[in-house]
Amino acid sequence: MANWLTDYVRPGIRSLFGRKETPDNLWTKCPSCGQMIFHREYKDALFVCEACGHHGLVQARDRLAQLLDAGYTVLPVPAVAADPLKFRDEKKYVDRLKEARTKTQLDDAVLTGSGTMDGQPAVVSVQSFAFMGGSMGMAVGESLVGAAQEAIQRKAPLIVLTASGGARMQEGTLSLMQMPRTTVAVEMVKEAGLPYIVVLTNPTTGGVTASFAMLGDVHLAEPKALIGFSGARVIEQTIRERLPEGFQRAEFLNEHGMVDQVVHRHDLKPTLVRLIRLLMRQGPTDLMIVPEADPVPEPAAPAS
Fold first, then answer.
1. Which domain holds residue 48?
2. What is the rounded average pLDDT of the residues 85-93?
3. Which residue of 185, 232, 272, 282 shows the fewest CB atoms closer than 10 Å?
């Protein structure tokens, strides 16, 4: 026999006054200081923790929206062989690609936008670390070649934001071949007399560092970004020496001449705009102020 109090009244009261569950995606925990940040405020702050200044990972589409003016065009990723080596480890490579595409809503680990930056023509390619660690496979190589061709056609600078763990092992030698291919793409841009600017973000390692990431006319980096080829532990084991504090971080590389400037994410777009105007020779900017030269005195008249 049903009990009216326990079966009907108590559940009704609980539904009225019960604790409501908070969606998991409303808050983000800073991986550096542990501060809980309201997700909307975190996005408005360009995914930078206001408590400690930690620069969090940014999705590729958000990067393009942060840098390019409204109305830019996203270039399609060129079609490549889906699984040329029929590779399988714990999972089939094709299954890993499907999972990454579902998770990121990207076709592969790079997204290219063609548009303007504060009115200046620009082509911007962004690597997505969320897509299989930003690993460089054939699709990434083809995309960067396409980005270079787009920049040449539009007579616009090419800007690449790197974030990668290196080559994509599931594509073997075909992945390693993208290193010389992307190098040739960069040379195409330079031979056309156009600027090639690299923004090194956390992390930039492996074959990406050994190819297009370190070939820029100017290298910018975000604060504390990890930049290198091999991991620090591998290097220490090879040379049998303890590495200095902060080795492979953006600030260390800036001090030793490998990075031109470490730029806070909030200042990245205006810095890039100033660089574009300077490198495209569009007049003086506040990035570099050249003092006027003192007038050369006229030679004294020879004594008679």
1. 23-54
2. 94
3. 282
